[in-house]
Predict the 3D structure of the following.
Amino acid sequence: MKSIPAPADLVQKAAAGDQAALTSLFEQLDPALRDSLRNDIPQRWRSVLGLDDLMQETYTDAFLDIVDFTPRQDGSFARWLITIAKHNLINAVQSLEAEKRGGKRRRVEPEGQDDSFLGLYELLGGTTTTPSRQAARHEAREALEQAIEQLPPDYRLVVRMYDIEGHPVEDVSQTMKRSPGAVFMLRARAHRALRKLLGVPLKYFSDFA
Amino acid sequence: MDQRTNDSLSARSRLELIEAARESAGQLSAALLGSRPPPDLLPGFELVRELHRGGQGVVYRATHKRTGRDVAIKVVRGGPFLGPQDKARFEREVHILGHLKHSNIVTIHDSGTAAGCHYFVMDYISGKALDLHMVCHDLSIAETLRLFSKICKPINAAHLRGVIHRDLKPSNILIDESGEPHILDFGLAKADCEAISDAARWQAITVTGQFFGSVPWASPEQVSGARDQIDLRTDVYSLGVILYHMLTQRFPYFLAGSMRDVLSNILEIEPIRPSTVRKDIDGEVETIILKCLAKEPDRRYQSAAALAEDINRYLTHQPITARAPTTVYQLKKLVERNKLPFAFVATLFGLVLGFGVWMSVLYGRAEVDQTRAANAERQAEHQRAEAVREAETVKAINEFLVNDLLAAAQPEVAQGSNITVEDVLKSASERIEGAFPNRPLTEAAIRSAIGQSYVSLGLYSSAEPHLRTAQTIRTRELGKEHPDTLRSESMLVDLLCRLGQYTEADRLSEETLELMRDVLGEEHIETLQAAHQRARMHWHAGRVPEAERLLEDTLERRRRILGDQHPDTLHSLTEWGSITLMGRKETAKAEQTFREALESCVRVLGDNHPQTLKAAGLVAYTLCSQRKFAAAEEMFQQSLEGHRRVLGADHPDTLVLKWRIAKLRQGQARLQEAIDLFREVMEVGRRVLGAEHPVTLQALEALGHMLLLKGAYPEALAIHRQTLEIHRRRYGIGGGATQHSLDCLGMVLLRLGRYAEAEARFREAYAIMYDRMGNCEAAVGSLRGLIRALAAQGRQEEARPFAEELLRLHREGAEGADTDAYRVNCYARALLTVEPADLRNPEHGLEVAQRAFTMSSDDYHYNRYTLALAHEMNGEPEKAVAMLRRALAHVPIEVSEERNEYETTLVGLLERMGDVEGAEQIYRDTLAKRREHFPEGHGDIASSLEDLCVTLIRHGKHAEAEPLLWECLEIRQEALPEEHWQIGHTMSVLGALTTGQVRFKDAEPLLIEGYTRLLDSPMAYSNQTQQALERIESLYQTWGDPDRALTYREMLPGTD
């Protein structure tokens, strides 16, 4: 990975939570980051997955995760951003590939919405210790519905439309006015958010606390 | 749909995009903040922030209110609704962590329940999860392995206490600020003792088919629900996935698709080879990882300690156990690593013990398997029998190693002397004869090992009997097609090639490759090695297109199968650069290729590996070929230092490097240093490799060329005749070496004026080159020589087709993408000097010469000389003179060949311009410089004296010339053997001088003796002999004796 230097003072400020510094860093590094990532988007997906989509999702993640970043040697900030971008890209491309292969392989067949919720819950990595699948379905739905409600609107929309209601990505894309690639990146982040929300004991069961 | 595919944004749009991201992040952040528990949820602690979320709960950083100490608190998800199974797991983790005391396992201090929430309090480790640590730190492979080895230690400590983690993954491994790992989350851990004593309880927790743990890191036995198979090797598997991920940032399997697909991949699909994901992962690291990831626990490392040990062995360049520990491999490693004899001996003892341990593991495993499963009884029995047989073999080998191989190192034998690896091998060689009367295959294995060790040391002839015997034994005992026999043959081919025994190597390599393809398959690693050897044999035998095709094919296959960074691939790459690119004189491309190979070698093999040193030498050689002497010098010196240190001064690879450095000295016009170095290589080569070894012959040939440059033609002639005879006898006609010898010999014959003989040599050389590669740049030397030989005999028309071909080749060389000043200059020179003369194009020649001149450095006198020729031929004599003077200024005084040529041209030009004094001054200056530079009586002073005298005679200054010429004759009579042609030549010139002074009686004996001496010397039929004859004819003509004059004229060649 080619080293892209960033002003050390801005990086320090950004890492300390200064959003203006972070914004300024993104502005400065944007052209070099684009150069570095431009060729990573597979040719066949460029019509549905633009570099802007990738950059926007990457910056969103970076705003959220900057607290975890520790400035190291020169170029570490750009490497960190590029790593985030590549994760986003992989998520999007895998989803697009899966979509092309069989449409809904990565999501649960929505025989009923309970099944959809349970499927999504399992897809998110949830394991249930209850022996009854019926109970699990019920619990999962409740937990998920609460968590989905806490999501920001865009995330909520993509999860509802794609994972729960089973709309094709083209429909979601049209509704959200985003490219299919961006939809999948958004969905990946929405899933991460859901995992976080579902992992909180105080919220998992509503009657706790 | 708003498809924003345009990626060139204005600053404003860029800011809008970033603002949108910021807004989106803000929304999400706000949504998640609401989920944080109240800070005073747990009595006595203040929650500071969330650290980690896992399947079983959330970990918070907290402060112990009373002591102010930072702690980590894990709150189990589920709160009051926690089922009995979850509670049991929670209690188990508290119990296990409470009993595990290790500095790299987080310690538990307290546990309890608050507000229905189960929690326990642990050490707070300030650090990052392993995956994040890897992203934030650019660790090299070695650094990663060192860190990983540390991770294995606490896991092993847990195993020793009967605890299996079962949920190892990067997020459960924290790396603190000092780089120390800390293992977390024993929530899924299984204590063996409990599992045995409380099986029913265990079953309640792990309902068959229900999965605990994190899928990507889970072992096949975990995902298949085979709980009875979960043991410490399950953790070894997860460690393997972790190491894979640390090194590649990927998983060993494709994880997209449904859960069923993912589980099926883990159960059934072989891991993606890590070297295909990250090219600089070498074969040994890959072997270690893949051993961890074996589907069957029996094939994995049997403990985290064994895994850590292998990692450490790799890091310290010891043989890893993951690879089948063949004696060849072990000994090769030993020889590579051990420079000190005592270290060698100590490690060898380790090897002996290692064999014992390894075999006892095999043996013990067979026992365990036998009792474990009845249906595996037959397999276990087989394994047991195999182990017993192997153990017996190893025992025999061990006894030999201890009693015989190491005998030389025992104090009573060594008696204080410095025992070397070579001594130990020599001792073993003497003792192996008859040591294994009933174990021929053991003998073969040991002989192979000894042979390979000798090869590593560069002692090829010592290796030969061992490798030949090993091959014979294996052929007899195992049959021709057995893989071990084929391996033996492959080793033998390699050795024969190193010994320069190309004819036998050629035959054997063909046979071996064919059998390997049938028996092992086209793409087996050893088949590819055999193909590589075969390509080399093609090249030695002059089958260049076949060599190039096979090399390219092997390189492509190795790249695909082994990856770009595998040592075998790098070997193919350097060979391709040496044979194909250097053979085609694509030097710049070759330099780039060798540089890439060097970079990879350093990364993969380290600075001191012989392959790395070789690659550095090749880069330097390409720099030298491009006349980048300063860069070449630096690189050569580094490589030479490494060669001496790692391989020793007499190793064949060191000799090859010295030969290349001598070529550099030649390029730098440091002729005497070049000669000394070539002589050294030749002498060491004779002693170590034999008088007829290719390395020795190459040095001898280069020495001949140096003598040619110094004007010592007869000595050069003798050397080139000798090397040609050896090349023809040993390697047959048609070899590249033979062609080169012919070219060298032709060159000397040209200088001696023996044009017909030169023509025959060049014709033969050109025919060989044409058969090997067709018309190509490598053939220009032979072509140029042939044209000059034909033209000198007045057969310009015969030279025409060759001259046209030469011009075409030079034009292509000059206009190609890979062109350089040398190529452009060659084209210019051909345009100006080619025969027949009507093919010359002085105008275009001037343009091209000017181009070459601008491309070259200041001290590149060849281009100046070409430009001078061009100016002269375009009617610009003043410019030509100026350029020639500048060219001469850059030719070192000891370089006779070019200096003479430039001086002759300059003097001729000045004379034509009427500047007689100027012409004489050229030689006067050189004479003065040589008197200053060389000791009294040096041959080059005599040459200068002669040049000046010939000019003075031409200008009628006989009186001035005479004492100088006598001085010249005196020097030559003093310094040269009596029969040397130069003495005869000087006498003849002196006779001409006295003829000019009308002292016929003085002239006659000088001229006759001079001629007779020339006639008796190896210079017969040379241009000097003809000139001597002409001078006698002239004497008698002038003296008024036309009959005698006619007699001598009739003796001239071409006179009927």
